[in-house]
Amino acid sequence: MSLPIPAAGALTQPVQIHSIEGITEYKLDNGLRVLLAPDQSKPTTTVNMTYLVGSRHEQYGRTGMAHLLEHLMFRGTPNTPNALAEFSKRGLQANGSTSADRTNYYASFASNPETLKWYLTWQADAMRNASIQEEDLNAERGIVLNELERGENNPFRSLTEKMRSTAYQWHNYRNSTIGARSDLEGMQASELRDFYDRYYQPDNAVLVVAGKFEPEQTLNLINGLFSTIPKPERTLTEAPTIEPQQDGERQVILERSGGMPFIAATYHIPAASSEQYIMLDIAASILADSPSGQLYKALVENSLATGVFGFAMAHHHPGLIFFGAQLNDTMDIAKAQQTLHEVLEQSARHPITQEQLDRAKNNWLTQWDELFSSTEQMGIGLSEAIASGDWRLFFLERDRVKNLTLEDVQQAINTYLLASNRTSGLYKPADNPQRAPFETTPDIAQLLKDYKGDPSFTQTDAFDASPENIDKLTQRDVIRLPNGTISTAMLVKPTRGNRVQADYKIQFANAKAMENMASLSAAAASLLDNGTATMSRQQIQDRIDALQGSIHYGISGNRLMVSLSTHKKHFPELLQLSLELIQQASYPLKEVDEYKERVITSIRNAMTEPGALANNILSRHSNIWPKGDVRYVPTYEELIENIQAIKPEALREFQSNFFGAGDIDIAVVGDFDPLQIRQILENGLKDWKQAPRYERIDTPYHAVKPETFTIETPDKSNAVYMARLPIEMQNDDPDYPALFMANYLLGATETSRLWTRIRTQEGMSYSIRSSLNISSFEPSGTWALQAIYSPTEKERLKSLIDETIQKTLKDGFTEEELADGIRSALNLRSLARSQDSVLSSTWLKYLSLDRTFEWNRKFEESLQKLTTADVLQAMKTYLKPENISEAFAGDFLGKAD
């Protein structure tokens, strides 16, 4: 694909408009705004085109048009007939999304001037030359309807959508972005073309380029590609509809089978650009915080709910704030709802504190900093500020959070969380209703005319993410202590925001010692940060927040897995804290009971979900381990029984017996001092009790008798198909690269055979993917396939999957498919190596295998040498359709009726 680029001298040069903290805005003659955010710290580039059109711009009877058009854009142009396929060939992580206020199309890729030029050329081509054919519409219509049905399976999503539709009387925010089924079914390509012609224009778009690129060269390229598109003669105007003040409580009751009950309440609030919006966003974080929030204390601690939530919706026009709680089926719904309303609307009885505000502000700013530190996330995330009115709101909102006072937030709660401004599951008339203030959209230009951002912003140095350079820069060592060893891999590299990522594992005991302890061990890990003899759960979280970091504990068999991330200046203290918690966790009874309620409620919700049921039945079908073995797959009823049996004293005994020194691996990536980290590890672990000698728990290959399961899930609009096939192979097998590529081309990408047939050609499934999981330790693995679909399409879906697999086994893949697949896979692997979290987790795994990234290099070299004959032979050898077990889960009887 190529578009003519005029000579630079023939073009009017872009005008610089604003520059804040490393982001510079330019404007082209045709109205296109361009934001350049160079970042040399890692070799990735992100391009994000935001069109200022979303579901609020749709007309009556045409809901879902913006989202459906987003899907059709990937059907391509005459120059690029299948955009998703081209993205996949080039190894781009590309997608699009639609909200009420905007639509965006973005891609992240390993930095390469040619890839950047190709993708910008596609964006310019797509702006005015999208095909939008009736045949493509018919195919995508089925995919979108399948996506709609998936949403209808989720009671939470269904209820909040209905609450939003009830809260808004006139404004288009009342409509779901995905649209009404009848509107989607009646949509015509000509109508979508008119919508596209009106809104997909340079004067209604903002283009962001972030990451590693050459700014001047890129700006000239953009100018050459997009300046040829004339500024349209039409004038865009805002719809005159302004939502009136709500004048009384509104009520929604949703009845569906399956799942656990929950309650919610929503209130009208100002637009995202308003100063009051961030006050209410912070208020939601405070009130719904677990475990310090007013809602948590009133509902969860009094056994009226198992969990609470709260969030504000950022919109260009005045939006909504949501609160709610998850219950189990034994709890008093009416009392819980009454308590929810009282806590939110009687703020004098439930005032927020300065401590709560400081905690919420710190947490918000930490999340903002993490977003800003990642140019990929920031480049995409700027779409939300752009949709709210101006990209500079991204920084202004941060400044507003820093300056918030307790009086500000409390006054916002008092002003907007009123019974007369509420939509919930309860109707309650009021004789003398109070009114929330009338809101209009602020003047963005006036608001930001003198705004300059943070003057201390600096850029980060570049990093070469090749396997050779990663190995060269990584310091590997073994720390030997009297009570055991610590294997280390430390990679010092530049990072945006001076972030550090670490992963470590504490390995202990064997399969025999872990009998009847699967659920107990998971709880022992999950509750490590829920209290010690000197710190409560909230105090621990406050300390982590003060260090602007995160700590996550989990269990994998007989290994405690720990992941942490923060700034360079806080990393030593955060690492030390993570070690202290492992030794000092006290497992308070209150926290243990609340954990059990949360987990059991989650399990009971899963017991009616098609995907969870299909996964459980296939996992149990392939299970060979006796009940009590840590590898045994329990039923959901057994799992609930195991959770109910957990006691604090058993958790403390498990922690004391197993969470000890002896066999520990740690990987650290980012901006840190290795000698300082080594000293912390030595001092922090030298006095630990030694854990029982570690023996890896194996999962050897075993044949599984093929079987087909059908599971009825009443009242679920979307069905799930899953298939599993055991593979006898280890990933150092000479056949592994060929089998990897066979799966990649069959079902792992947007150009795969299964995706192309089921989604692109037939429009039957929103998502169909295959995966290959091959052990690094032993000849054992699994090939898996999963798809979602309408229950009425069950037999047709199975027929098409079988047909596609059989045809591929007979004829293999083409030379072009293989070449594109190899290039795509290598690009995606290169992109993955630029992520610190991937580097850290990979090094942690390699420490157990005594591997380096040289293994990566050799594997990728093997991929490049593959022939179509190699790939076909591997597929014929290992992919045996007659040995596949499969599960269909959905409302098949209901749909048939």
Structure description:
There is one protein chain. The protein is of the alpha+beta class and 897 residues long. 43% of the residues lie in helices and 18% in strands. It has 33 helices and 23 strands. The protein has a seven-stranded mixed beta sheet with strand order 1-2-3-7-4-6-5, with helices on both faces. A hairpin with a 2-residue loop joins strand 1 and strand 2. Helix 3 runs parallel beside helix 8, helix 20 (571-584) runs parallel beside helix 25 and helix 27 packs antiparallel against helix 28 (794-811).
Strand order of the largest sheet: 1-2-3-7-4-6-5
What share of the residues does DSSP label as strand, in percent? 15-25%
State the share of residues found in helices, binned by percent: 40-55%
Average pLDDT number = 94
Output the radius of gyration.
28 Å
How many beta-strand runs?
23
